[in-house]
Design a protein that fits this description.
By secondary structure, the chain is α/β, with parallel strands linked by helices. The chain has seven helices and 17 strands. It has a five-stranded parallel β-sheet with strand order 2-1-3-6-7, sandwiched between helices.
């Protein structure tokens, strides 16, 4: 088993390292900030296990996951109140309250060894941030530029009805019904758009929640959307996305 410690308080990091050593788990890597963690995780193979403090010297540890995809098991080490953390214990992410008790540390590692299978979706960062009252530091696109003849057109995201792909090209459709060619794929756009406002309903469409005018039951358990300004083709929520779409609407 490989493990690293991400903890801004160096004495606490060394104490945890000694405790892990007594249990038989050597941890040679200790990182003390979001920046250090991002750099190290970008350049190295994911460890099996990360002991992660929530509050680091240059921000909250959730920011790490906005920069790198981490597929390690996470055990949080935190001074936050136990009752707040109970809310996300069901997500199969364990936690240790400071000061860390050695018996609880052993139990957490045993839980990992017996129950944990590596899969990145177990780190539900957004839910943890919401429960603990942290806001994401990530910023999203507020506007796009596109060429119209000899002119550059500036389009605010609030004006956009949807993004869609057609014939291997990507377009913006405004709520006024105008279409603009965009030199980006839908896959890249997903990463740049505010997920509270925009949702990818299918392989072809990313829609703006503020542009939805009607939602209609459609064949094969799908949904059809009527969007402001969109008249070119049907906007269908694919069957595998319907459940997530409904959850997103209620968020």
């Amino acid at each position: 088993m490989t493990a690293i410690i991400i903890e801004d308080e160096r004495p606490a990091a060394r104490r945890l390292q000694r405790m892990l050593g007594r249990i038989g788990l050597e941890t040679d890597v200790m990182l003390h900030s979001v920046a250090e963690a991002v750099n190290w995780l970008s350049a190295n193979k994911d460890p099996d296990l990360i002991f992660l403090d929530i509050q680091l010297s240059d921000g909250v540890s959730f920011e790490i996951f906005e920069h790198v995809k981490v597929q390690s098991a996470i055990i949080f080490t935190t001074a936050y109140d136990e009752y707040a953390l109970q809310a996300f214990k069901v997500n199969s992410i364990d936690y240790l309250l400071k000061p860390i008790d050695e018996e609880e540390l052993k139990a957490a590692i045993e839980k990992y060894q017996t129950n944990f299978e590596k899969r990145s979706e177990q780190v539900e960062v957004g839910k943890l941030q919401e429960l603990l009252g942290f806001k994401s530091s990530k910023t999203y696109r507020n506007r796009f530029t596109t060429q119209v003849g000899q002119h550059l057109k500036l389009i605010n995201t609030s004006e956009i009805s949807c993004f869609y792909s057609e014939n291997k090209a990507t377009y913006i459709q405004s709520q006024g019904g105008r279409n603009y060619l965009l030199d980006q794929s839908l896959e890249n756009l997903e990463k740049e758009l505010d997920p509270e406002v925009f949702f990818r309903v299918s392989r072809k469409h990313i829609i703006n929640i503020r542009a939805i005018e009607d939602i209609i039951s459609y064949t094969n358990s799908r949904l059809e959307l009527k969007l402001a300004g969109h008249t070119d083709s049907q906007v269908i929520v694919s069957r595998e996305r319907v459940k997530d779409f409904k959850t997103w609407l209620e968020h």
